[in-house]
């Protein structure tokens, strides 16, 4: 019991508001969150308000928001989903141009060889 | 003479023997002998009569003593036992007032005292044994619950699925409530809170306290702290969190399930920080309030047998923590919503300053209050008459304010940390400025002088 130096004080279950489960589960780590400009509502938790503040000045990915808020990725996704449901945030998938139906996680990402060629080209150019 | 013999038989006997002896010594005649015999017979009668009277008195005395003893056994000692359990039971004294002040009465009193002392000592011993047993069990359960907490937290860190995460949240919350119940019992039975925290932000501490309760959604937390640097020193962090949890639990329990509990964090002028908890419940009766004040003062070891069934441990636990750590708790005020206002006052000795950049606040703790600012009127146009002419209302006079460039940007609450590039430039400029200012000034010389 004396290993308390790192003992958690504030649990993550305080972050999402209420017990309502978010309706969508389509957000990914690289989904970009954009504030719609609506003000925070009274029922929003401090964590949700902080997420709105973070995105107020520009768009951020879910992963970056989780880093800034020091929350687990899953929790941050849940917050973002709730805010998207409330209309305070817009979610934009990072890869455009691919129809929703055929997209799978990781698909559509440029192949590694292409990325390596781009890197090499940049290195020679610099 | 016989009347005198009844009152003082010893004297009479002595006198009679004396007379007989004189008569015998001087008795050479028959008349003298007969006189002596008559004397002896008279004195023997007196003697036997006085013996009978003495025996009757002794028997009466013994009867009185027996009655007093029976009264002690049948009435005084049982009432004494009841009185020790609950002081409003009266303890009767001697029944027979004629025994007052006698040695026998003193003996009875000391017997009663001894009985009371023995009962008290035995009660303390039994209670201490019960406390030790409960303490041991609680501390083990607490350790296991903390283990579970760590495991659940690790699972939450990597979980990506919303539904699973919700399930983890539910388990985690149940576990937190379990820790609270066990920790409270352990503290009442003389244990320490069970863990040491580093210096902790006050809003985090209170937020953490709310998370340990069923129905935490009803708790509304407002921070009126002017800065986000206010923290509680490590040794008092967990105790204050526990005290806050118990007061919040009382507030939630004593108010209806659809009423909120308002918690406010305040700074005072003397450096102390207060956690103010207002509920809209029924309030406390006078007896409850005085009992609470007695427990909260934390001056005495509380016996488990005094806490009722089921034992009400909350105030007793707070009392222990108050006595050990030196913060104050009051519950004697009425809240503005007709319930109870509980206040935890954290003295300046237990308040510390924490740099929010190295140890930032949790994302779940309440946002700091915006600093009071002189009211600024929004200026939409340089011409004050333009707006009023549009709306058709009466013309209003506006003070022409000066727009400070950059103020609007700063007014945006929160915001992202500055760009690394920009931060580096700012610091470079700052350090260069300091270096330039120091060069050629006599500050170095002064420093040398001082050392």
Keywords, please?
heterodimer, A: 126 residues, mainly alpha, 4 helices, B: 451 residues, alpha+beta, disordered N terminus, disordered C terminus
Query: Strand percentage of chain B, roughly?
Result: 5-15%
Q: Describe the largest sheet of chain A.
A: 3 strands, antiparallel
Largest sheet of chain B: 5 strands, mixed
Average pLDDT for all residues of chain A: 81
State the share of residues found in helices of chain A, binned by percent: 25-40%
How many helical elements of chain A? 4
Rg of Cα set of chain B: 42 Å
List the uncertain runs of chain A.
1-5
DSSP, total strands of chain B = 8
- Output the number of helix runs of chain B: 13
Tell me the strand order in the biggest sheet of chain B: 2-4-5-7-6
The count of β-strands of chain A is: 3
Overview of the molecule:
The complex is a heterodimer of chains A (126) and B (451). Chain A is built from 4 helices and 3 strands. By secondary structure, chain A is mainly alpha-helical. In chain A, strands 2-1-3 form a 3-stranded antiparallel β-sheet. In chain A, helix 2 crosses helix 3 (73-86). Chain A is elongated. By secondary structure, chain B is α+β, with helices and mostly antiparallel strands. Chain B contains 13 helices and 8 strands. Chain B has helices spanning 2-7, 9-26, 30-85, 103-158, 162-188, 202-210, 234-254, 286-297, 314-325, 384-391, 407-411, 420-438, 443-450; strands spanning 200-201, 219-223, 230-232, 261-267, 273-278, 328-334, 340-346, 351-353. In chain B, strands 2-4-5-7-6 form a 5-stranded mixed β-sheet. In chain B, helix 3 packs parallel to helix 4 and helix 6 (202-210) crosses helix 7. Chain B is elongated and about 150 Å long. Residues 1-9, 381-389, 406-412 and 443-451 of chain B have low confidence and may be disordered. Chains A and B meet through helix 1 and helix 3 of A and helix 4, helix 5 and helix 6 of B.
């Amino acid at each position: 019991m004396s290993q308390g130096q790192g003992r958690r004080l504030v649990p993550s279950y305080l972050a999402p508001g209420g017990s309502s489960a978010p309706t969508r589960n389509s957000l990914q780590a690289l989904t970009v969150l954009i504030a719609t400009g609506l003000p925070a509502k009274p029922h929003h938790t401090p964590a949700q308000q902080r997420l709105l503040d973070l995105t107020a000045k520009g768009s951020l990915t879910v992963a970056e928001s989780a880093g800034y808020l020091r929350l687990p990725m899953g929790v941050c996704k849940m917050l973002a989903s709730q805010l998207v449901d409330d209309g305070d945030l817009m979610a934009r998938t990072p890869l455009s141009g691919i129809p929703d139906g055929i997209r799978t996680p990781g698909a559509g990402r440029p192949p590694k060889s292409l990325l390596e060629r781009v890197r090499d080209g940049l290195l020679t150019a610099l | 003479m016989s009347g005198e013999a009844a009152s003082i038989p010893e004297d009479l006997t002595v006198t009679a023997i004396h007379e007989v002896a004189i008569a015998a010594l001087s008795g050479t005649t028959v008349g003298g002998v007969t006189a002596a015999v008559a004397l002896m017979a008279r004195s023997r009668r007196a003697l036997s009569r006085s013996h009978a009277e003495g025996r009757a008195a002794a028997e009466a005395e013994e009867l009185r003593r027996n009655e007093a003893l029976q009264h002690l056994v049948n009435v005084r000692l049982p009432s004494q036992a009841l009185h020790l359990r609950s002081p409003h039971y009266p303890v009767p004294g001697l029944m027979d007032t004629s025994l007052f002040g006698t040695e026998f009465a003193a003996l009875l009193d000391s017997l009663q005292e001894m009985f009371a002392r023995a009962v008290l000592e035995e009660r303390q011993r039994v209670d201490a044994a019960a406390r030790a047993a409960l303490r041991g069990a609680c501390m083990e359960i607490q350790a296991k619950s903390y283990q579970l907490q760590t495991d659940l937290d690790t699972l939450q860190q990597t979980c990506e699925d919303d539904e699973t995460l919700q399930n983890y949240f539910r388990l985690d919350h149940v576990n937190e409530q379990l820790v609270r119940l066990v920790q409270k019992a352990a503290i009442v039975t003389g244990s320490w809170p069970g863990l040491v925290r580093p210096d902790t932000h006050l809003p985090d501490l209170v937020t953490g306290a709310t998370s340990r309760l069923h129905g935490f959604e009803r708790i509304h937390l407002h921070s009126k702290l002017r800065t986000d640097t206010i923290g509680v020193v490590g040794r008092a962090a967990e105790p204050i969190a526990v005290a806050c949890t118990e007061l919040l639990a009382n507030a939630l329990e004593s108010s209806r399930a659809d009423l909120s509990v308002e918690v406010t964090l305040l700074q005072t002028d003397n450096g102390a920080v207060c956690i103010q908890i207002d509920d809209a419940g029924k309030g406390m009766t006078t007896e409850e309030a005085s009992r609470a004040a007695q427990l909260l003062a934390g001056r005495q070891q509380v016996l488990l047998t005094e806490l009722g069934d089921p034992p009400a441990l909350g105030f007793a636990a707070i009392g222990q923590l108050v006595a050990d750590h030196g913060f104050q708790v009051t519950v004697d005020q009425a809240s503005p919503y007709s319930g109870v206002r509980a206040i935890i006052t954290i003295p300046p000795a237990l308040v510390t300053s924490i740099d929010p950049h190295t140890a930032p606040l949790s994302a779940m703790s309440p946002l700091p209050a915006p600093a009071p600012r002189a009211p600024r009127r929004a200026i939409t146009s340089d011409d004050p008459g333009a707006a009023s002419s549009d709306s058709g209302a009466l013309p209003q006079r506006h003070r022409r304010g000066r727009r400070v460039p950059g103020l609007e940007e700063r007014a945006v609450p929160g915001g992202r940390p500055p760009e690394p590039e920009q931060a580096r430039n700012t610091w470079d400029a700052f350090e260069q400025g300091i270096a330039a200012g120091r060069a050629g000034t006599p500050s170095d010389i002064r420093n040398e002088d001082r050392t």
